[in-house]
Amino acid sequence: MENHKKASGVALLPFLVFILVYLGAGLYYQFTGVDMAFYQFPIVTAAFIGLILAFCLGKESLNEKFHIFAKGAGNEDVLTMLTVYMLAGAFSAVASAMGGRDSVVNLGLSVIPVQFLAAGIFIISAFMGTATGTSMGTIGAIVPIAVGVAQGGNLSVPLVVGACIGGAMFGDNLSMISDTTIAATRSQGCEMRDKFRVNLLIALPAAVITLVLLLIFGRPEGAPAIENLSYSFIKILPYLLVLVLALIGINVFLVLTLGIFAAGIIGMITGDLTIPTFAQNIWGGITGMDEVFYLSLLTGGLAALTTHNGGIAWLIEKLSKVMKSKRSAQVGIAALASVTDCAVANNTVAIIISGKVSNDISREYDVDPRRTASLLDVFSCVFQGLIPYGAQTLTAAALAGIAPMSIVPNIWYCFLLAVFGVISIFVPYADRTCRKNPWNWEYNVAQSGVEAKKKELAAEAND
């Protein structure tokens, strides 16, 4: 049996059906006035429908197709990504259960002067999003408090909520334990810290300008009173531990495991956790990642079937007609991530879907994988923060009691991130970290082949 067939656009139909089913269902519920419309029809179910169609294509036997699917779903990068998802979910749940998330919010609100409230909300959200790796958890924790304080100080509620979403997306984009970072780096085969260095040079200027604008235009008319908020610095330590260890390059599995037990031990010392509740929160955090876990498995297998049937080759063949250089290839990668996110309203899913194609484009046009991972994460986060039907905006609007469209113009950070993302393509200032340590495709491919051979020989020896 051939490993790859000739290029075929038909092979992309399963992915197209997957997106159209999910998008169509979301639009239907949106127009009928259902809350959280794009989350009524499970995206995993839509992926399953696309997978059924993929199994109907091609002339191979059902067993042969399942072998291709299983090989894709069981790919080392996919399994690594799934394991990191589970550990990240467990850490987030345990750290939150022992009071770490509340301590971060209360500490920030206690030390930031009330006249700088909007800018302070952005900073708190950015730190919490980076520390926890979840924009949704950040928004859920901060928006209710921020809205109350904003109303007391006659400050624009949409402005404060927009600052919170912007900060949350900053953290989601850069966090070492964010599912977007995990998906972007694993799909491109690069290290999280390397992607972080490239990404930071794009995100930081956007964040600094956002902060300046909020300091100028985000001052309240009055001085809202903020009640004494309790916090414990020791409960913030697990977040700092994970951030520092990840940045210095410690293995992500070890980092998250240390973070889980550090949060658990602190929780038991302070009386917020017991051994049973510690164990239950680990399990709860793992199962809380079930949607992205199953989606990654299904799309990993679906991508393998699509590649085998020539779908990826066809897409690259068509894209190559407009991609003539490394620069235009980067524009294509950014556009692919953006359009996919607008279609599925989930930045992690957008990266998972477009990751394989982006990796192949990178190889074709010699784009550094660290740069590709950064582009995928940046532009998927830009549009995830701006689309009014995304979970982040819908959740924030519901908590604040305002319309989603009133928030979108105030999410200044995401607009600025898009601007700097585009600038970084045409003025490659963010690539200097890559130039210091150039990516060698031939060497890295050869090394991965050596490692794969070692594992194969070890498995044979064990048998």
Description:
- There is one protein chain.
- With 463 residues, the chain is mainly alpha-helical.
- It has one domain (62-458).
- 76% of the residues lie in helices and 0% in strands.
- It is built from 23 helices and no strands.
- Helix 2 (43-56) runs parallel beside helix 14 (290-308) and helix 17 runs antiparallel to helix 18 (369-386).
- The radius of gyration is 22 Å and the shape is globular.
- 51% of the residues are buried.
- Mean pLDDT is 82; it is low at 446-450.
Task: Please render the helix and strand layout as text.
Elements: H1 13-31, H2 43-56, H3 62-73, H4 76-97, H5 100-111, H6 117-132, H7 135-152, H8 157-174, H9 179-188, H10 192-217, H11 237-247, H12 252-270, H13 275-287, H14 290-308, H15 311-319, H16 326-344, H17 347-365, H18 369-386, H19 391-400, H20 404-407, H21 412-426, H22 432-436, H23 441-462
- Total helices: the number is 23
Strand content: under 5%
> Judging from the principal axes of the Cα atoms, what is the shape?
globular
Structural class: mainly alpha
Q: Specify the biggest β-sheet.
A: none
What is the C-alpha radius of gyration, as a whole number of Å?
Answer: 22 Å
Count of individual domains: 1
User: For the terminal residues, how far apart are their CA atoms?
Assistant: 26 Å
Low-confidence stretches: 446-450
- Total beta-strand segments: 0
Helix content: over 70%
What value does the average pLDDT take? 82
Query: How do the helices and strands follow one another from N- to C-terminus?
Result: HHHHHHHHHHHHHHHHHHHHHHH
